[in-house]
């Protein structure tokens, strides 16, 4: 079957689907499925815009609301994960996944589904070590911390995914698995994005949690976005035994959705010709959700997942064939995901703007139904209960914010700049390109499909390499990537001038006063995300 893969959509659904239609006409193909690797921006109204951790000038309604309202319908089944530019309040309604609009399905914090026999998994958000071991405690209205931590990957999602035993065909993450750049054309990558060099050379670019999942799951395909550059790699995995057949992963990162960018890729995926055309639950994944339900945490307390270290009575939550069979029997062997999309918020009306609309914490009927069907904890309902049981709180995050300020992270000492005074207009997880000049040749990553040369996935890959054990990164032992220092330091430089942090940042080169480092930080923080006028200077 024909599968299209898109990078960061940034809410431009009309543009994305128009491009798909153009590709189908030019190459005389019919697309069966569209996958989007985060920054989807399912923004329904003005309140959703307030829940996006981006500067005000990037808060545009775009066109998702037309698909949410029913004015338009996605012309092809679309499955997406969350990134770091999302209406977090909307996606939070569907922690286990669900329909955000007819024919548009969100995989949840982490999820696995099936389509025509093809097994598709994904994990939403980006990695930040200081939130990695926390529960999903955030709820709208968000404060300056939780509007960002809401989309940070948590260890429980990685733990659940690591219980999978059956093969995965396709996996999606927003940020790249750390070290993946060593398995593609690294020279070309650094030519296009020279500001990645320091992180690439120190092996700190990307997510250690995604890297761990890549080594464990060994999917046939892995797709990512986030860094706004197209990059392909091919990883040959090491085998654990002589009997195990060699496995390899084709990795592809996509650019963002702009007319001059190569943000779409079409691939041929083997599928079950006898399978139906409906999106389906994955029985093993449902069984894993049931097995790990007792681990659900809605507090911001840091904790480790069970492991074989003598401290836990149980650490293996992988499921038996019997447990999978029980799920199938519960569903009468009908795995079709119900088309139970429901409007849960008012839709944007261009003729009646409501700029003062405030976000509210919503329990989505899809999640309620899903949890009731499989005996799972409704995370948002649990958060609501915690709010009601907590006395003295004016809003759901005040006490947590005080604890964070007074104690820091239980996972690591606070070696980062903690000045949040400028965060109201700058997101440290977002990196601007407005002032970045000629570091990349746009012609090298532009999209201009030719009728004579349809996009071919196989031509994107360089030589095959094997990841050595020395490059394996355990997410439980991982420190934060260099992005954290880079992003936060950049935040203190954006807009008005501020003095550099008193404590020099670790793992960043430069003189003892940090002069060289801060210059690199500013450029790194300007380098990835941009509006459509990115080729202009401010």
From TrEMBL:
Alphabetical keyword list: Hydrolase, Iron, Manganese, Metal-binding, mRNA processing, Nucleus, Zinc
Domain Lariat debranching enzyme C-terminal: 235-380
InterPro entries linked: Calcineurin-like_PHP, DBR1_C, Dbr1_N, Metallo-depent_PP-like
Polar residues composition-biased segments: 415-427
Comp. bias (Basic and acidic residues): 385-395, 485-510
Main location: nucleus
GO CC annotations, alphabetized: nucleus
Family: Belongs to the lariat debranching enzyme family.
Record protein name field: DBR1 enzyme
Lineage, top ranks: Eukaryota, Metazoa, Chordata, Craniata, Vertebrata
